[in-house]
Amino acid sequence: MAKTTIADVARLAHVSVSSVSNLLNGRSQRMRPATRKRIQDAIETLGYSPSFAARQLKTGYSPFIGLIVPSVADPFFGSFARYVEEAASEKGYQVLLGNSERDSERERNYAEMLWSSGVRGIIFGSSLVKFNHLEHLYQEGMHFVSFYRSAHSGDQFIADSIGVDNIQATRLLTKHLLALGHRRIGFVSGPTDMICRLDRLEGYYKTLEESDISIDQQLVWEEASGDTGSTSFIELGKQGAHYLLSLPEPPSAIIAINDMHAFGVYAGARDLGVNVPDDLSVAGVDDIMLSAVSVTPLTTIKQPIRDIARLSVERIIDRLENDRGQEPVHLMLPSTLIVRESTARYRGRSAG
Description:
Elements: H1 6-13, H2 17-24, H3 33-46, H4 52-59, E1 64-69, H5 75-90, E2 94-99, H6 104-116, E3 121-124, H7 135-140, E4 143-147, E5 160-164, H8 166-179, E6 185-189, H9 195-210, E7 220-222, H10 233-245, E8 253-256, H11 259-271, E9 281-283, H12 289-293, E10 300-302, H13 305-322, E11 330-333, E12 336-338
Helix pairs in contact: 1-2, 1-3, 5-13, 8-9, 10-11
């Protein structure tokens, strides 16, 4: 039996081949609903499946988008990957996923493998300070959209970026804790070798300075080396809490670089007999699903992750299909402070 072709679908639906192609490639916005339905019914009746190889020969790229994230073991990036896949599927694209563990060599290897497979667009979920390990692919024609990473001094090329203002995120948290009467506010982070983490630390510093509170570097705990993968976040948060809560003048509140670190702070506080929030207020960033249902629900910053994923997919596809030397786009979506039971008014546990 001869293989069903796009022409067969067009003939059965009484439309042009270009109309079927537009639907298959996610360009049916201006198509009448009745026309769209006829094409979809014809596809289902004939059992038509588009040939990815044929599409690659015609367009010069495969109908795939690359997605490189630190690790889907991190619930935040697991959700992000799912939303990217959802948005890409609606546009007729599939997603090839790589976990980089924030390692530039792994990122480069994944990107080169995707390029050799015909992929010409990658969404990046990491925000390494240096982006130069990908410059050779950019010069060859690879398109990048970076989540979490705006343009940075020293970059040899500038990619599109879509995300949230991470400085503003920790400003919101710090202001919230200051309004509750906290003055000794700790900060727990993994290595600050990523732009998003540097920005979050900057937001914390700036807000304290604007409130005329001297910055005490003892209150900033940062893991400088070792395992920095997503699965170690809880352990790192726990270590940070042990250090900060054992200071002669411990903090009455701690901001964690993300929610997983915050859960580690919970564990470290429990080890030392410190109760959250009676003795210690804790806040994180990301608003992962566990944040609302954990014992002592977590105060955190909610990011519009689904919108970021959708806009990232739309941008990379626009680059692939319509790129005409467009200037890089940098979009910052608003984040929201979500106040839950993990933060409470200062009760005099530590010196103010």
